[in-house]
From TrEMBL:
Domain WYL positions: 153-218
PANTHER family in the cross-refs: PROTEIN PAFC, PTHR34580
Taxonomy, superkingdom: Bacteria
Domain WCX: 248-318
Residue intervals of the PafC HTH domain: 12-134
InterPro entries: CBASS_pafABC_assoc_protein (IPR051534), PafC-like (IPR028349), PafC_HTH (IPR043839), WCX_dom (IPR057727), WYL_dom (IPR026881)
Name listed for the protein in its UniProt record: WYL domain-containing protein
Residue ranges the record marks as coiled coil: none
Length: 326
């Protein structure tokens, strides 16, 4: 004898119906048995809920229920084949929807996220992109996240995480030094157009941050990962200071100051000078300072020390000279 299920309270029944309607809309055609398995309820409960949905709706301007004011379904399919197909929707279509441009922007963001190795469930991301495309008020523009030189390295990092083995590569640090590193990948993050790998470095025996465009000759090893993301406490900030860092004084537009938060030492004193915020940042090398300033044109000025100003000025002049030569 089948086990009798306890009757649902009105509040639980409403919550179930509110979940069932968008589920049926998403699948367009689905069997009663499939819906029952999805929600973990008896098939008869699905049939009763569908019948209740079919007599639900919103009255029109006259205050009476007219044709089109109620949900409807393909009754022959439902009664003869146990298939659920909603043929008329009410109220749902009046809900706010993303515009085609908004949906395209979100889809591009999801494509970007799907490249991260920690996002293992890429099937769920693909499903969400499909939902955004179907649910937008207009057809989203066809978008694609541009491939970069780091894509091959990202693919190897994903493979390393998926197979649980270490990654080995040549690394060029900010001081121009080459070293062979063996790393347990923990997290991939980006700042503007730059990608960074945070992982447990077996050479340094500590967590280190590596910029992907400075990684060369990456290879998957056969050695198992010793440290997993759950085993290591990663700091919230991407860049951590060291005793060898160089301190540089900058004037920055107040609105852009949060972009430098990871570079500003905890004990830095910031003051207002001519409408700008004067503060200190730490960099491992003046080459990194050039990239930092280039990413914030017009809102950052290098104040000191003189060698920092000179490095940035010479770099900018060399770039301008190339345009003049062309």
């Amino acid at each position: 004898m089948a086990e009798r299920q306890a009757p649902l309270h009105a509040q639980d029944k409403l919550a179930f119906l509110l979940s069932l309607v968008p589920f049926l809309m998403e699948h367009e055609r689905i069997s009663v048995q499939q819906a029952a398995e999805h929600f973990g309820v008896p098939a008869q409960q699905i049939r009763e809920a569908v019948k209740l949905i079919a007599v639900s709706g919103i009255p029109g301007e006259t205050g009476q229920y007219q044709h089109g004011d109620l949900f409807d379904l393909a009754w022959d399919d439902f009664e003869e084949n146990d298939q659920i197909v909603l043929t008329n929707l009410v109220a749902i279509d009046d809900a706010p929807r993303f515009s085609g441009r908004e949906a395209a922007a979100l889809i591009a963001g999801l494509q970007y996220l799907s490249a991260l190795p920690e996002n293992a469930d890429r099937g769920a991301i693909a499903t969400l992109m499909t939902k955004l495309s179907r649910g937008a008020s207009g057809v989203p523009s066809q978008v694609a996240v541009e491939a970069s030189e780091s894509d091959a390295t990202l693919a190897l990092i994903r493979e390393s995480v998926a197979t649980g083995v270490q990654l080995e590569f040549d690394y060029l640090n900010a001081r121009g030094e080459h070293e062979r590193r063996r790393v347990d990948p923990l997290r991939v993050e980006s700042v503007d157009a730059d990608w960074y790998l945070r992982g447990w470095c077996h050479l340094r025996e500590a967590v280190r941050t590596f910029r992907l465009d400075r990684i060369g000759n990456p290879q998957i090893t056969t050695a198992p990962i010793a440290f997993h993301p759950a085993d290591v406490l990663l700091p919230d900030v991407l860049f951590e200071g060291s005793a060898d860092d160089l301190i540089v004084t900058l004037d920055v537009a107040p609105a852009a100051a949060p972009l430098l938060a990871d570079y500003i030492p905890d004990d830095a004193v910031s003051t207002e000078v001519n409408g700008r915020l004067r503060t200190a940042v730490r960099v491992s090398h003046y080459h990194g300072l050039k990239r930092l300033v280039a990413g914030m044109p017009g809102v950052v000025t290098v104040v000191g020390p003189p060698e920092a100003r000179r490095a940035v000025a010479e770099w900018a002049a060399a770039g301008a000279a190339r345009y003049e030569a062309d």
